[in-house]
Amino acid sequence: MDRDMDKSVEGIDKNSDKKRMLYKIVHRVMMEKFFLKQMDMSSETMEDFLNKWKVKELCGSILESVDERGRFVARMMLPHIKPFLLELEPEPEKGWLRGCYDYVLAQIFPQKREDGRTDIIETQKQSEFYETEGDDSARGRLFLLQLLKGMYIFEKDNVPFDPTMEMCFLTPEEITQKGYNQEYLKLLRLADRKHLYEFMRLGTEVRPYNTLGHIAGVHYVAMYAVSYTHLRAHETGRNLVCRLLLEKKKKEK
User: Fold this and answer.
1) Phi and psi dihedrals of 179, rounded to 5?
2) What separation in angstroms does the CA of 209 have from each of 149, 200, 205?
3) pLDDT digit string (tens) for 141-184?
4) Cβ–Cβ under 8 Å, residues 218 and 225
């Protein structure tokens, strides 16, 4: 009996530790300067918002929103956070998840339209890697995307690596030591400020095809698994994945 009780207490302690760890990461990403600027919030206002909606306590429910592999499922998490998203903006016509997906799609491919036309559909300000003023009409979607960013960082630290689910970028040390090019830096900015990974991850839930599995797999192979002798002459792994991503973008335009 005592042994069973000890195991139960240990399980509770581990869950509490994970909840604290998740909230610490979520809090950190919510306080990123570029994100606060886009949300048109001060750090104090964001702190008040997180406390008002008890996001720290919600992290317990978020931790349960996982599949059999322990990876987060956005649609399972969504009911827990809908109330405070609605304080930020009305629910998008196609729902929160598809609304976030379409929003990022318009940011990454500003000339892409669902009807196939290529009219410019965003201003110059919106195309500057999230470094300008925020869009008040999209604050709920931006908050959800940033929350997902924090969740996926936590997931990466706590779930076994899967090359079809994760983008394992070069570390700052590797970039410094091995050199880099502007295309790779652009890719990093897209991932950090344009929610590129969150966009692809949402795509696995709202679209019939798995873009993430393809791109993450190519990225992993190019960065870590392919011998340079099998690549183009004078083309490194990091150049290859950047070229593939940019060529894909040009084709979709």
Assistant:
1) 85, 165
2) 21, 10, 9
3) 999 999 999 999 999 999 999 999 998 887 777 776 666 667 77
4) no
CA–centroid distance for 17 within its chain: 23
Query: What's the rounded Cα separation, in Å, for the pair 56 and 19?
Result: 8
Classified as helix, coil or strand, 112 is coil
In whole angstroms, how far apart are CA 214 and each of 145, 195, 203, 219, 239?
21, 18, 12, 9, 17
DSSP string, 152-217: HHHHHHHS---TTT---PPPHHHHHHH---HHHHHHHHHHHHS-HHHHHHHHHHHSSS-HHHHHHH
DSSP 8-state assignment for residue 1: -
> Is the model's pTM score more than 0.70?
yes
Mind giving me the DSSP string for 17-80? Answer: HHHHHHHHHHHHHHT-HHHHHHHT--HHHHHHHHHHTTHHHHHHHHHT-B-TTS-B-HHHHHHH
